[in-house]
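sanity check both lines:
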Amino acid sequence: MGFITDHSSDTDVISIGDGTVVKMAGGSFGMHAIVEYDYEGTTFYAVYAHLSAYDKKLEIGKKIKKGQRIGKMGGSGKKK
């Protein structure tokens, strides 16, 4: 499940829960981060795509908290 929204690049993108950053890259999703989450014993991943910038504290392998900023919303990559 996912959604694409069109907001200002000043809008913060925040984590939906406590998790671990497993990827930070570019490509058709533009600048994006993938975060691994565990919910009641089930592992799932969220892709935060089309970012204009990463938060300075974001690093692969680093734990993040619910509500922590991942980056800034943007229009990088291919949106359809």
Summary: The two ends are 15 Å apart (CA to CA). The CA atoms of residues 21 and 60 lie 5 Å apart. The chain has one domain: 12-73. The chain has a mean pLDDT of 86.
